[in-house]
Amino acid sequence: MGKERRLIQSIKRASDILGLFIVEQKPLGITEFAKRLGLPKTTIASIVQTLEAIGYLEKDPASGRYRLGPQIFQLGMQCASSIDVITTGRAWIERLCFQFREPVNVGTLVGDKATILMRIEPENHFMVFPQAGPIIPLHSTCIGKLLLAFMDESRRKVILSGCALEKFTDHTVASKAQLLKELEKVRALGIVFDDQETIPGMAGIGGPVFNHAGAVVAAFAVTGNAENISRQREDIIAAVRFTTHQISSQLGFPG
C-alpha cells in the first residue's frame, strides 16, 4: 500500500474558506465561516487574517465581512490564460463570432460548477449575458448541458443530485428525467441547443472540445438573439461542428 497523504490542516482549512465563495458569491463574516465549516471562531479568525494579509481575501471596512482579494483574481487570470483550450481555440472562436455576428462563449467545469472562461463579442452587441467569470446554470445553457452530457456518469449523478432545476422560462427543462433524455441526444449528436431556456429571446447552439484522451475539457456556444440564431440555424450547426473538430484536433484529439 502507498503512503497515506498527510495534509497540512491549516492549508486545507484556508482552501475550504476560499472554496465557500464558489457557492456563496457574497461577502462572508467570521461567524458565517465558522458556522459553515464547523470550526471555532478563533481558528477561523487567524486563518482569515493571514489570507487577508497576503491578498487572498479583502475586508469590507463598512460591514466587516470578507470577499475574495486581488491576489485570487491575478491567479485566476493566470490560470485562465494558461489553459490550452483558450490559447489554442481563441482564433477559431473569434472566427465563429464574426461569421454570425453573435457572441460566442467558452466554458468549463470548476469543481461542480460551469464557469465562463472566455467570451468573444461582435461590436455594438447589447445582449451581454453571460460575461466571462460567472457560474452559469448546468441544465439550461448550451455549455452546461454539454459538460453534463460528456462527463463520467457517476460524477453526473452526484452533481445532479444536488442540482435544483430552476425554472427560468417556460422553455426550461422541467425534470431530471427530461434533462437526462436530452443529454442522451447531445451525446449522440455531438451538438446542443438552447431555445430561450435561461433568458427569453436568447438562444444558442454549442459544441464540445475534446482533448487528446477523448475527454471533454470545455464547451462553446454561439449565443444571441433567438430570431438570428433560428434564421442561421443550419449554417451555425455546420460551423459549430467544424470548430469542434478544429480546436479538438489541435489539442490532440484523434477522432
User: Low-confidence spans: pLDDT under 50, at least 5 residues?
Assistant: 124-129
Number of strands: 8
Distance between the termini: 37 Å
- Secondary structure class reads alpha+beta
Strand content: 15-25%
Describe the strand arrangement of the main beta sheet, using strand numbers. Answer: 5-4-3-8-7-6
* Count of helical stretches: 10
Rough shape? elongated
Helix content: 40-55%
Mean pLDDT: 86
Please describe the structure with a list of short key phrases separated by commas or semicolons:
10 helices; elongated; 255 residues; alpha+beta; six-stranded antiparallel sheet; single chain; 8 strands; 48% helix; two-stranded antiparallel ribbon
List the helices and strands and how they pair.
Blueprint: H1 9-24, H2 30-37, H3 41-53, E1 57-59, E2 66-68, H4 70-82, H5 84-100, E3 104-110, E4 113-120, E5 135-136, H6 142-149, H7 153-161, H8 176-189, E6 192-195, E7 202-210, E8 216-225, H9 226-231, H10 233-250
Antiparallel strand pairs: 1-2, 3-4, 3-8, 4-5, 6-7, 7-8
Helix pairs in contact: 1-3, 2-3, 5-10, 6-8
Describe the 3D structure.
Helix content is 48%, strand content 18%. With 255 residues, the chain is of the alpha+beta class. The protein has a six-stranded antiparallel β-sheet, sandwiched between helices. The protein has a two-stranded antiparallel ribbon with strand order 1-2. A hairpin with a 6-residue loop joins strand 6 (192-195) and strand 7 (202-210). Helix 1 packs across helix 3 (41-53), helix 2 (30-37) packs across helix 3 and helix 6 packs across helix 8 (176-189). The radius of gyration is 20 Å and the shape is elongated. The two termini are 37 Å apart. 30% of the residues are buried. The model is unreliable at 124-129 (pLDDT under 50).
